[in-house]
């Protein structure tokens, strides 16, 4: 709640504004959700989400706890397949392909649309092997693994801090370094999209700033979707923001997540179109 009530006075939109100065700026769609419903067994966690993610943009998913942000995020690379009873209806197009199509290889989908989790989860291996693991198991053709490891760590802004201890355990790194290692591990298999589920919520403010700066760098090469419960973070990093909430059914009282409003970040925070967005960002509802 703190981050919500404290949100408004200190919000800055420099970054988002710089990307939205031209109203006709509309890069191509990379991922496109059309009328997506997501179930866990008979429970409908998310209803009717249509949402397009644009190339080389950072999109934030925000909204109160339990409104389905992580569920939507996991549907974007078929991570929900790994959850018992989870089911997705509707279409999610990745470029020109429905990722839930019949002959689609979910593992390949997850390589091209990588994911970074809330809690850094390096493998119990050396720093080097954490990066080399993905390329090895996916059988990537690699001319020099050393070069690939260096490149991924450099792109994740970690190389200088670890270049002299590549053979040491990843567990010796700080939390922030571990999270950047997980980002490097995702990058190593050459994805197009990187999904991040509250990637900074276990980190201190300095480590958080490093990840946010890194996201701005990565945007030049990748498309990023980030779930964050921190509205200032959405305001700082995201080009566009999608606000979700949970609606209760009048008769049954069952709650389901819906997309309320999706717009450029500056627009959504400064001139929200929906009263529910306004209430949320001004802290009247959490
Ligand atoms: N693995 C699961 N099995 C059953 N229900 C789940 C599972 N994961 C999430 N849910 C439910 O789906 C709804 C949305 O959850 P989630 O996507 O985690 O929300 P958020 O990330 O916005 O906090 C919640 O009601 C939650 O309890
Ligand atoms: Mg979540």
From TrEMBL:
Pfam families given in the database record: ABC_tran (PF00005)
Descriptive protein name: Phosphate ABC transporter ATP-binding protein PstB
Domain ABC transporter: 31-271
InterPro entries the record matches: AAA+_ATPase, ABC_transporter-like_ATP-bd, ABC_transporter-like_CS, P-loop_NTPase, PstB-like
SMART domains: AAA
Assigned keywords, A-Z: ATP-binding, Nucleotide-binding, Translocase, Transport
Gene Ontology molecular function terms on file: ATP binding
Gene name tied to this protein: pstB_1
Species assigned in the record: Microbacterium awajiense
PROSITE patterns the UniProt entry points to: ABC_TRANSPORTER_1, ABC_TRANSPORTER_2
